[in-house]
Every structure is written in structure tokens, then in C-alpha cells.
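Encode chain A's predicted structure.
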Amino acid sequence: MHSPLIITVAPNGAYKTREQHANVPLNAAELAHTAKECLDAGASMIHMHVRTPDGKHLLDAQAYLDATAAVRKAVGQELVVQITTEAAQVYAPYAQMQVARDVAPEALSVGLREIVQPEIPLAEIQSFFAWLKDTNVMTQVILYDVADVRTWQRLRASGVIADNRWFLLFVLGRYSVGQTSSPTDLLPFLAADDGAYPWAMCAFGPQENACAIAAASLGGHARVGFENNLFLKDGKQAPGNAALVQQVVDGARALGRPLATAQDIRAQFQH
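Encoded structure for chain A:
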């Protein structure tokens, strides 16, 4: 029996604009409203970006704290709130690691290839991941391809990254033509993965839901939302993030897989 399915909503990302969809949440109040809608649809985690007043990508501790407070007011402890260190071609590794330390969030996502750069000594990587473990920050490590999986395994084997309750995210189709994903994009990740940690996927384009259901059927978890996809499985534009969550809930029900609660996630990934 597979563990309960963790459905994470990624409602805005670093790049999506109102011109692309009128319901992309850009500020704290909109994130809070979206969080409640997605919780009601079946999500148990929110992967949250913050923006500048004019909508640009932002890594800022106070903005994260303000957005987190707004979401907490809307949903209490019923969603795990995950912030991101994403560079988005704006921020360097040290700034990415510093915002994590300044916020000390409940949950964090880290793109491994963005942090593991030639100018960053391995001792700094070791220190950062040790801090994440010691402060009990629920950490999801983002892997874009099999090379990233190998890097992750090498850093663990060499002791740079200690064992912990890590959570992996496989990004499907990031470098495919037209940046559209299909469920078969999951197969190379699963072939390379050593099974040491739970994993989830995210995907681009209208097959996002098919990828999520494939992951759910194979014991993985799913992240969906406007960050990577604006379309329902029938190709029509989704009215909001909650509709993308609802599709995964329907698929999980068809698979007979129960849904995780925020409490389930904390029990699994915090120590």
C-alpha cells in the first residue's frame, strides 16, 4: 500500500504574469485566498513564490514572512508552507542560502544545481544542508535531470550531505522541446534513483495531470499549479489553481490512493 499522496500546489512561480492568466496570485492576500481554495480541493502543501510590487521574482525574508502569515491566517496549520530559493536568473547561490537562513521556514525547496556551483566550496554546501537538518526545515531537493540525480547521490556518498528526511522533486521535461512534459519523462529519474527518499514530480504543459497520476500510481507524489501549467487535462485553460489540484484528487480516488494531510507530511519529514 502506497503512502498517502502529497499534493502540492505551486500557484505562481517566478515568471507567470496576469497577462498569461488573470488568476495568478501575486501578493500575500491572493496567495492566502488561493491557499484556502487549494486546501479545500485536496492540497496539503503550498510551494510559494513572492514577488515585487511590480510582479518580478523576489527572494526576501520579510516578504516570505508576510506571505506565510497571510496563508496561516487563511488555513491555519492545514497546509505545509514551502518557500523557494529559486534563482530565476536573478540571485546567486549565497543569496539563495541566506534567505533560507533568514526566514527559517517550515519547508523549503532548493534547486541542487543552483547551489552546487564551482564558486561555492563543498564546505559551504555541507554547512547549508547541515543547517537545514539541524533546524528541522523540511527540505525538498529539486533535480532537473539524471545528471542532477547523480550529483545528489555523489554528495551524499561523499558525506557532503548527511542523511536526513529529504524529499526529492523530479522536474519532468524542463529541457524538452517546447518545454512540455509527458509521463515517460519520469522513467529516467526512476531508473537512476536509489529509492532512499520519497519523491514527487512537477511537469510543464497540459499533460501535467497525466504525469501527476503516473507518479501517484508509482508511489510518488505530485506538484501541480500555475507555476508550470495553466491547462486542464482536456486542453482548456484552468479557471484557477484549485481546478488543477482537483484533477489530481480525482485521479488519486480512481487509483484508490488516500490523500496526505499536512499533519501526515510533518510526521514524515520532520524529526
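The CA atoms of residues 48 and 83 lie 5 Å apart.
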